[in-house]
Amino acid sequence: MAGGIREQSGDDLVENHEINVTPFIDVMLVLMIIFMVAAPLATVDVNVDLPASSAAPAKRPDEPIYLTLKQDLSLSLGNDVISREGLPGALERLAKGNKDARIFLRADKSVGYGDFMTVMNLLRDAGYLKIALVGLETMPQATFSETTAPAQAPSTP
C-alpha cells in the first residue's frame, strides 16, 4: 500500500519499503489491450478465388522437354515412363547436357502440392533450374458491361 496509518505521534516519519505497483499494472493492462486489438489485424485472412491466366502463351522451343507427373505419381519424360532415380540421366540425354534447357512440367490436377514439389526438387537436384509450369489456356472473360447487358429475345415476324 502507498500510505500507512501512523500509530505514533511526532515529526519523525518511518520509511515505507513497499513498492507502489498500481501504475505498473495500469501500463500492463493498456499494453495488453493494444496487443489484443492489433494481433488480429496483423494476420491475413482473406478468401480469394484466383482467376485463370489469360496471358498470351510464350514461344515454345523447337524441341520442348515435357516432364509429366501423372495421377498415380509416375513420371513420364516425353512419351516414355521413367523412374525417379533415372530422371537425372534421362534429362541429361534429352537436353544434351544443357542445364539451361527449359523443362516443361505438367501435372494432373489431382496431384497433391507436396508430391508436385518433390518432383520440382528432383529437377533442382539434377541441376535444371529453368522450369515452366504447363496449364490449360483459357479465353479472356467478358467484361462486366457485357455480362450485365440484358439479353434480347429473338424477334419473330
Automatic annotation (TrEMBL):
Keywords: Cell inner membrane, Cell membrane, Membrane, Protein transport, Transmembrane, Transmembrane helix, Transport. Belongs to the ExbD/TolR family. One of its GO terms (biological process) is protein transport. Pfam families: ExbD. It comes from the Bacteria. Signal peptide: none annotated. The keyword Amino-acid biosynthesis does not apply. Its main location: membrane. NCBIfam families: ExbD_1. It is a single-pass type II membrane protein. The chain crosses the membrane at residues 24-44. The keyword Manganese does not apply. It is found in: Cell inner membrane; Cell membrane. GO terms for cellular component: plasma membrane. This is Biopolymer transport protein ExbD. Involved in the TonB-dependent energy-dependent transport of various receptor-bound substrates. The accessory proteins ExbB and ExbD seem to form a complex with TonB. GO terms for molecular function: transmembrane transporter activity.
